[in-house]
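Example (one chain per record):
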Amino acid sequence: MKIGFKYSNCQGFGRMYNYGLKHFNPYTMITDSAQEGLKILNYWKKYGFEATRDAFGVKRSTLYYWQKLYKDSEYKVEGLNPGKTIRKTRIKEAFIHCY
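Predicted structure:
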């Protein structure tokens, strides 16, 4: 059985598909919370921890965690995007209760 590309006859579809993946993928988009996190990190570097805590109410451990995420993503703002918040055990429990 041969598997073919559904849109092979549609000129320019591959380019538009790649554009959509690049710009509208939720894992590569820059969310508002990522921009806010970068703003807080820059404020922290400029004014120090005490001023940042008073202005934004952010814990020191959160700042270091954001700094690590930012560094691990090679200083891309997308690295500060929030990840999935559902627990794996909750997913398993939901799956068990279906049967």
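Caption: The chain has a mean pLDDT of 81.
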